[in-house]
Amino acid sequence: MAFKVVLATKNPHKVEEILAILGDIPGIEWLTFRDVPFSDVEEVGETLEENAILKATAVARETGLPALAEDTGLEVEALGGAPGVRSARFAGAGKDYRANNEKLLRLLEGVRNRRARFRTVAVLALPDGRTWKAEGVLEGEIAGAPRGEHGFGYDPLFIPEGETRTLAEMPPEEKNEISHRRRALEAMRPILHELSSGKLRL
Ligand code: IMP
């Protein structure tokens, strides 16, 4: 019998990437917002960690199933780490990816230091409130203009260290090999194996 784990996100891009990274774990059946309904969780935390815990614990409680959430932020050195935890609503609530990217480029006009990093914090929560946390970072820099059609969010502006292409210029498999999300989720793999092998008492 497979263990059901809910992906606590309604972002279809994230669902696709998480399933591409962790979908191969034997004994785990991943459920998404398309399979099991759950309420939106307001991201009112001050840190990525707080938001990831909020999302995972709320969905685990509501569905009665283990839930995996992640919160991701883009931290730009010259902006003191902004947009960070506010990456989704950088250009204002309800604004889209393009508006966020335009705002970022505007703020960096004439700025020589383009260093930035993506940081993902992943959290697995059980319905009884126990949680496990893991983090992944991808260092890089902000391009002068958006390039590429793949990915989502800030991908067209982010050039990983050692690369010339933006994340949006890479095919999804390549992004998923090196991404902040991959690094956080790989660190989560051992606890997911414990869950699927029955070693972790539910
Ligand atoms: P959240 O983790 O859902 O709060 O995402 C915050 C925002 O960061 C999203 O709205 C995207 O704009 C951006 N973001 C999250 N993950 C990625 C990624 O892998 N690439 C590019 N942008 C991302």
Task: Characterize the structure shown.
It is a single chain. The chain is an alpha/beta fold and 202 residues long. It has one domain: Maf protein. The chain has 5 helices and 7 strands. Strands 1, 2, 3, 4, 5, 6 and 7 form a 7-stranded mixed sheet that branches. Strand 5 and strand 6 form a beta hairpin. The mean pLDDT is 97. It binds inosinic acid. Inosinic acid is lined by residues 11, 43, 71-72, 87-88, 97, 100, 151-155, 181.
List keywords for this structure.
alpha/beta; Maf protein; 202 residues; 7-stranded mixed β-sheet; 5 helices; globular; single chain
H/E element order? EHEHEEHEEEHH
In CATH, what is the class? Alpha Beta
Radius of gyration: 17 Å
Residue share in helix = 25-40%
Unreliable parts: none
Tell me the CATH architecture: Alpha-Beta Complex
Helix-strand makeup class:
alpha/beta
What does the largest sheet look like?
A: 7 strands, mixed
Bound molecules: inosinic acid
Q: Give the total of beta strands.
A: 7
SS element count, helices: 5
Could you tell me the CATH topology label.
Maf protein
Backbone shape: globular
Mean pLDDT: 97
List the domain count as a whole number. Answer: 1
Beta content comes to: 15-25%
